[in-house]
Amino acid sequence: MNMLFERKLAIPVEVKEMYPLTGAMNETVEKSRRAIADIFEGKDDRKILVIGPCSADNEDSVMDYISRLCPVQEKVKDKILIVPRIYTNKPRTTGDGYKGLVHQPDPTGKPDMFNGIIATRRIHMRAVAETGFGCADEMLYPENYKYLDDLLAYVAVGARSVEDQQHRLTASGIETAVGMKNPTSGDYSVMMNAIMAAQHSHTFIYRGWEAHSMGNPHAHAILRGYTNDLGQTRPNYHYEDLVRLCDVYDSKDLANPAVVIDTNHANSGKDPFQQPRIMKEVIHSATPHERIANTLKHSMVKPYIEDGAQKPGDGCYGKSITDACLGWEKTERLIYEVADML
Fold first, then answer.
1. 293-316 pLDDT per residue, tens
2. Residue 70 contacts by C-beta under 8 Å, 6 or more apart in sequence?
3. Which member of 28, 124, 218, 248 has the lowest number of beta carbons within 10 Å of its beta carbon?
4. Total tally of structural domains belonging to the chain
5. Is 1 contained in some domain?
6. φ, ψ for residue 164 (rounded to 5)?
7. Residue 177 placed within a domain
8. Residue 3 within a domain
9. pLDDT attached to residue 98
10. For position 299, which CATH number holds?
11. Which domain holds residue 202?
12. Is the residue at 5 inside a domain?
């Protein structure tokens, strides 16, 4: 093979032995998972807000950001369940650029996968222990999920992964809600097939084992916009898009029909300052339409401490080194405005 095998990495059980959860941390994660499940099952009429930086590039600034969400959550707890994003894997369209904490625990340093695995577990553990939140991450690599499977309250499968068989089958064995994004083409059928696969049981190979999954009844849709055949970004969060998704759900035999709107990516043309407008429009779309209101569980937003983005190594604390984000003051105001609208 045309590759160099540098070192054998610790398996998930070994990493968990090095960094075990406390009883209190287990309780926090289980409580978060149950609350999210209740929302997707319609037992709780609150909305979910999956919110946080594009990528978790710096442990201290990410923890600073999540800590700021704590008093906000207390004020909006009757309307909104906040699920902080701690995205430790970063998909790259061309393969170039910063690939996330799991690859580079130091964004300006060389790849270091072992220390990256430790860094991803440590930051999620800190968030649970210090803030009481159960958090979200993207499942970019299905085999890596076991390093965090006792910590995550929400999992997303990205637009470039949603058609992959291993992602779909792994999602069918996950014990928490999994959002399946529409692919970059915008084809609803790809996303719906992924949800169908994730909701059913399977037998497949996972980390060298013959694995048997039970099916995930909380697998659901995430609309993130798409790119047309001319390479132009197009949104899919408008009223007509939501009605169309409801129609597709009505034609399928799926548990807990649900959608979360990703206010970034192609929906905003990666302009972070469009996110508040998009989120408010989605709320207005649901108001007169019972099917949309019942299906819409709510939104993903990309904010950080500072507006915009920077290059790795620029050194601005709390500013994204990947996609541009919405700053803290604008984000805090948005959460309160949305709570008032719900």
1. 999 999 999 999 999 999 988 999
2. 131, 132, 133
3. 248
4. 1
5. no
6. -80, 130
7. yes
8. no
9. 87
10. 3.20.20.70
11. 12-341
12. no
